Amino acid sequence: SQELEQSPQSLIVQEGKNLTINCTSSKTLYGLYWYKQKYGEGLIFLMMLQKGGEEKSHEKITAKLDEKKQQSSLHITASQPSHAGIYLCGAGDNAGNMLTFGGGTRLMVKP
Amino acid sequence: DTAVSQTPKYLVTQMGNDKSIKCEQNLGHDTMYWYKQDSKKFLKIMFSYNNKELIINETVPNRFSPKSPDKAHLNLHINSLELGDSAVYFCASSRSGFNPGELFFGEGSRLTVL
After folding, report:
1. DSSP E strand stretches across A15-104
2. How far apart are CA A3 and CA B7, in angstroms?
3. A-chain residues within 8 Å CB-CB of B35?
């Protein structure tokens, strides 16, 4: 089965700093999804990447997909306390079903 | 209106009991899912239903039985609860089960088995 490994597992940054979260797949990626989970709440969809080299941005969050390396990165510019939460990457299998999530990256932003 | 709603939000029960968690989506989506998030925050797919048909069942014990009376509802019934069943269970929905795109998640149901 497909496995997604996220790094780092946790991250504490000072407000205003930039940060990057990585997601590496053990198998070929057929679509890569980024979600954010606030503590004690459900998951909120951030972005979906489907093509190699694709890059998407939403406010201060940018995600890229490197299909050859089977990796995706999520970059947050000028972090704010509102960015705190757990970031999870998810990937579909070759049948097009979304099955697997990474272990998550816990982000804390210190004011 | 909440897009994907789950009840109850919290559930505390004894080992051996049977319990159910209900999920409803008002988005008109064709596919619904149940995910389990353990204490380490690992999120794993349990079931997926597309238009009331089961399309995924990921090595979940048969004590867990999903029931979908219609495409807007996917309930999870758990028999003979065990300590290891303690987790947060998330319901989700998507427009279709193939290349599902964005999944909409409920807020989760925290199950504690004593």
Report:
1. 19-25, 32-37, 43-49, 55-58, 61-66, 71-76, 85-92, 98-101
2. 30
3. 101
**Cβ separation B56–A31 shorter than 8 A:** no
B106 near A CB under 8 A:
yes
Q: How far apart are CA A6 and CA A32, in angstroms?
A: 13
Cβ–Cβ under 8 Å, residues B94 and B83: no
On whether the CB atoms of residues A90 and A33 are closer than 8 A, the answer is yes
Cβ atoms within 10 Å, residue A10: 10
CB contact under 8 A, A41 and B44: no
User: Model confidence over A2-40: pLDDT tens digits?
Assistant: 789 999 999 999 999 999 999 999 888 778 899 999 887
Residue B83 backbone phi and psi in degrees, to 5: -55, -40
Interface test with B, best of A98, A99, A101, A105 (most B CBs within 10 A): A98
- Average pLDDT score over residue span A48-54: 85
Instruction: Dihedral sign for Cα A8, A11, A13, A19, please.
Output: positive
- Residues of chain B with pLDDT below 70 are 1, 52, 97-100
